[in-house]
Design brief:
Elements: H1 2-12, H2 31-39, H3 44-49, E1 53-56, H4 62-73, E2 77-82, H5 87-101, E3 106-110, H6 116-130, E4 135-138, H7 153-184, E5 198-203, H8 216-236, E6 241-248, H9 254-267, H10 273-282, H11 291-302, E7 313-316
Parallel strand pairs: 1-2, 1-4, 2-3, 4-5, 5-6, 6-7
Bound molecules: nicotinamide-adenine-dinucleotide (NAD).
Nicotinamide-adenine-dinucleotide binds near residues 253 and 256.
Organism: Canariomyces notabilis
Protein name: NAD(P)-binding protein
GO molecular function, one term: quinone binding
Amino acid sequence: MFLLRARHSAILRPAPLAPLTRLSGRRIPNPHFQARFLSNTTTLREDQAKTRTAIVTGASRGIGRAIAVRLAQDGYAVTVNDLPSLQTELESLAGELRSTFGAERAYAHTADVSSPEQVAGLVQASIARLGPLDTFVANAGIAQVKPLLELTPEDWKRMFEVNVAGVHYCFQEAARAMIAHGTKNGMGEGKGKVGVRGKLISAASIVAFKPFARLGHYSASKWAVRGLTQVYAMELAKYGITVNAYAPGIVDTKMWELIDDGLGKMEGKPKGEMIRRYSDQLIALGRTSVPEDVAGLVSFLAGKDADYITGQTYIVDGGIIYT
Ligand SMILES: NC(=O)c1ccc[n+]([C@@H]2O[C@H](COP(=O)([O-])OP(=O)(O)OC[C@H]3O[C@@H](n4cnc5c(N)ncnc54)[C@H](O)[C@@H]3O)[C@@H](O)[C@H]2O)c1
C-alpha cells in the first residue's frame, strides 16, 4: 500500500534535484535528501525493508567500482568484493557508499573468486549483513598480453581459474542461496512463474565475439563466460533466475593500462599509444569507453525492465562489433 502511495506521490510532485556528491559525475541523492523526500509518503525504515541487495566482485576499481556505485544509486544495498590486497581501496568505497546512502547500504568483503570456499564465505557474509541476495555481478577478471606460442600452462590455468571458474563459483553459490531463500518463502520452481527472484550478471567482453591477437587465452576465457552464461540461463530459468552478461569494448581502466603496456612493448610504442590507436581506429562513436558506460547497461540488466531477458550477452563498445 505504501508503495502505491509513494509512487503516486512521486508522480504528482517531481523530486527536486539532489545535491551532487564526489562518487561520480552523476547526481546522487544524499540520505538527508532521501529522508525528506520519502517523509511525505513513507518512512525510511519502510523503504529499507524493500531494499534489494547485490554483490559486485572486483569492485575496488574500474568497471566493478562504477557498477557498485550505480547499483547503490539505483537503491541497492551493495556488498563490494575484491582481493585481500585491495582491502583498503574496497573499505574506502564501502565507506563512501555508506556515508552517501546510509549505514546499511554497503559492506566490504575480500575474497578470491577463484576459491569456491572464499566465494561461499562472500555470499554468506553478504546475506548475514545485508539480507537475502537479489543480484550477483561476477565482474572480477584478469588479462594478460602474450602470444599463444609463449603461454605457459600456469598462464592458461590462472586465466581460466579467475575468469571462468571464478564466474562459475560465484553463480553457483549465488543461485543456491537465491533458490534456498525462495523455497523457504514458498516459491517453488516452475516454468512460467510470475516474478523474477534473482539476477546473475557476468563480465564477458567483445573478445567473446571477435578475439584480439596476443590476448588469446583472455579471449578464450571470455568466450567461455558467454557460453557459461547461456547454460546457467537454461538451467536456472525454472527458478525465476535470469542470467546475462555484459561485453565491454575498450574501457579506460587499469586492465587496459596493462594491455596498452603489453602491446606497446611488443610494437615499440610509448605508453598510451596503443589504447589511443585502437580507440581511433575501431570505435565508431570516437571515444574510449569509461566504466560508467558499462555500469548503465548493468543497471538495466539488474532492473525490472530486463525481467524477460535471459541468456544474452550485451555488447557495450561504442560501435566496434555489430551483432
Ligand atoms: N577494461 C576493459 O576494456 C574491459 C573490456 C571488456 C571486459 N572487461 C572485463 O570487465 C571486468 C572488469 O575489468 P576492469 O577493466 O575494471 O579491470 P580492472 O583490472 O581495473 O579491475 C578488475 C578487478 O578485479 C579484481 N580481481 C582480479 N582477480 C580477482 C580475484 N581472483 N578475486 C577477486 N577480485 C579479483 C582486481 O583486483 C580488480 O580490482 C573484467 O572481467 C574484465 O575482463 C574489461
